[in-house]
Every structure is written in C-alpha cells, then in structure tokens.
Design goal:
There is one protein chain. The chain has 324 residues and is α/β, with parallel strands linked by helices. The protein has 2 domains: 6-124 and 252-319, 3-Layer(aba) Sandwich (D-Maltodextrin-Binding Protein, domain 2), CATH 3.40.190.150; 126-224, 3-Layer(aba) Sandwich (D-Maltodextrin-Binding Protein, domain 2). 47% of the residues lie in helices and 19% in strands. It has helices at residues 2-19, 22-27, 44-60, 75-82, 96-104, 112-115, 140-149, 164-176, 188-197, 207-215, 263-278, 280-289, 298-319, and strands spanning 33-37, 64-68, 90-95, 116-131, 155-158, 181-184, 202-206, 220-224, 250-258, 291-293. Strands 1, 2, 3, 4, 5, 6, 7, 8, 9 and 10 form a 10-stranded mixed β-sheet that branches. Strand 5 (155-158), helix 8 (164-176) and strand 6 (181-184) form a beta-alpha-beta unit. Helix 5 crosses helix 13 (298-319).
C-alpha cells in the first residue's frame, strides 16, 4: 500500500513537471494585462496598440491596458518589459525601431532576440515625405536641388534615434546624396507639431497619421515611401518614381513578450491577434488609413525579425548612421 502511494505521488510530481506551464496558460488571462508602448501618445504605435487592446478584451475576457513609456528611442519602455515576469501580463508593442536599434544602439540593457519572444505582427504602412508650406520645393527633385544648394541648411524631424522616421530620413539622405540635419523629438506627435508649425522644414511620417494634415494643406506631401503609390494619397508619387531610384521604407508594428513566457500563452495570443487582423472590417478600416494587416505564426515572425535586423544593420553600416 505504501509503495502504491509513493508511486502515485511520483507520477503526480512527474505530471506537474511535464505540464506545469500549461495550467496557467489554460487559465490565461485571469487578470488585466498591460501592453507597454515605448513611444509617445498619438502616433501609429499608440493608435494601433489601443485598437488591438480593445479587440482582445472580448475573446480573452480581460482588459488590456495601454501604458505609454516613451524615451531613449524606445529603450526605456522596452527594458521595462524585458525585466517583467514572463507570464503574459506585460507585453511589448514594438516596431522596426527595435530591429534598427540592434545595430544602431548595441550597448542596450537587453538584446531583442534573446530577452523577448515574438508573438505576432500587427500591420505595416508607408511613410510620406512632407515639408512645411513655406519651403519653396514643390517636388522631390526640387527638394534635393534645394538641399544640395544649402548643405545642412534644412532640417528634418523624427520621433527619436532609430525610429522608422529617423532611418527613412537617413536612407533618403544617403540615396539622394544630400546633407540634411536630423532633429530628434521625444515622440512623433511632437515632431509632427514642429513641422506643421514651421520650426522644422521636413519630416518622413507615417501616412496613417500625416495624410489628413497633407489633405488639409497644413503640410505639402512630396513623395510616399512604398513600392507603389498609396491609395490614401494617390496623387502623390513615390519617392522612387519622383527621382530617388529604388528608395523604399515602411513602418511596421508587432507584439513581443519577455523571454520565458509559456508557449501556450504565446500561441493563444498569436491566434487571437491573427483573428483580429483577418477581420474584413479591420482590414477595410486600416486600408482606408493606409495600413495593411500582417499575419504570421510566432516562428514566421521570428524569421521576419531576424531578416529585418540584418537589413537595417546593413543600412546603418553603409549610410554611416550614428546615434544622436
């Protein structure tokens, strides 16, 4: 009898060791979760994080709270997530800022692919190069001519070092052969305000947020950054067709979790996010804003991230981009 009790206890202990991680995953989420957005309010990352959080609440039965933690080109908020418990209750809203920073800012308190697990991408969108109406250039070619006539006489705004806005600007400078001064800001909202007020002349901004300003005449749109014209600003040529051959840049968003997060939680979040971005109403709403939904498995997203890290490492090296 004692032997049978010992055997049953041993079997129970074995089951717990084998399946211990599945119990919390089956109950997940049992309390509200946070999505840390390491960028300021009002930009694409903040907007789409809130959009996603609202739509995760219904299928998962808990609220997903957005917590903006901007600063240091996304590093402050990202480090907070890296040091959080790997239980699925603290998630990271990330972008290609993070893949750029792997080479641009090597001395960080975390390593993206070591300290985080990929969950799912969300969407991507083109950028649009805009100038304040006081700038005399009416086209990309005229802007390049103006910049070449006044080396370092023009400024462009970004939401900080390593952000898609910064890297798109550096890529433009390198490919167009111009010298334009980078003016980093604390967030894309602040950078946008600087351009619309005329404090800074140029910005490469997400088309999802800047297109309405261009249509209202508050800025002049000279070119978009995709491989083809945007349906949101169809009369605006791509930068590539306007004179900078092969130029292309986008901004994309995704979700990651601290390394060690149980696989069942990662898989469930991936499945629910995949369902949201596949909804026809979501696709329609995002397309009207200039965003395209993205869907991948965690393994596919991991492969995508590694490829993007390699891509931007090459750009950082060739263009000679340095942290400000």
């Amino acid at each position: 009898m004692k032997f049978e009790k010992r055997a049953a206890a041993a079997l129970a202990a074995l089951c717990c060791s084998l399946y211990g991680n599945e119990v919390p995953a089956q109950q997940y989420p049992s309390k509200p979760a946070r999505i840390i957005v390491p960028f300021g309010a009002g930009g694409p990352a903040d907007i789409y994080a809130r959009y996603l959080a609202q739509r995760l609440q219904e299928p998962l039965g808990q609220s997903f709270v957005i917590d903006n933690r901007p600063g240091a080109g996304s590093i402050i908020g990202t480090d907070l997530v890296a040091k959080s418990p790997p239980d699925g209750y603290t998630l990271l809203l990330m972008s290609n800022t993070h893949t750029v920073n792997e080479s641009l800012v090597p001395k960080k308190p975390f390593a993206l692919m070591k300290d985080f697990l990929p969950i799912a991408p969300i969407n991507y969108s083109d950028l649009v190069l805009v100038v304040h109406p006081s700038v005399p250039a009416k086209s990309i070619k005229e802007l390049i001519a103006l910049a070449k006539a006044k080396p370092n006489g023009l400024n462009y705004a970004s939401s900080g070092t390593g952000t898609p806005y910064h890297m798109a600007g550096e890529l433009f400078k390198s490919m167009a052969g111009v010298q334009i001064v980078h003016i980093p800001h604390k967030g894309s909202g602040e950078a946008r305000t600087s351009v619309m007020s005329g404090q800074v002349e140029i910005m490469l901004d997400a088309i999802t947020t800047m297109a309405p300003m261009a249509r209202a005449g508050r800025v002049r749109a000279l070119g978009t950054t995709g491989a083809k014209r945007s349906t949101v600003l169809p009369d605006v040529p791509t930068i590539a067709e306007a004179g900078v051959k092969d130029y292309e840049a986008t901004i994309w968003l995704g979700i990651m979790a601290p390394a060690g997060t149980p696989k069942p939680i990662v898989d469930r979040l991936n499945a629910e996010i995949g369902k949201i971005v596949a909804r026809p109403d979501v696709k329609k709403a995002w397309n009207e804003q200039g965003a395209e939904p993205m869907a991948m498995t965690p393994a596919e997203f991991e492969k995508f991230l590694n490829a993007d890290i390699a891509k931007w490492a090459h750009v950082v090296k060739v263009a000679g981009v340095k942290p400000d």
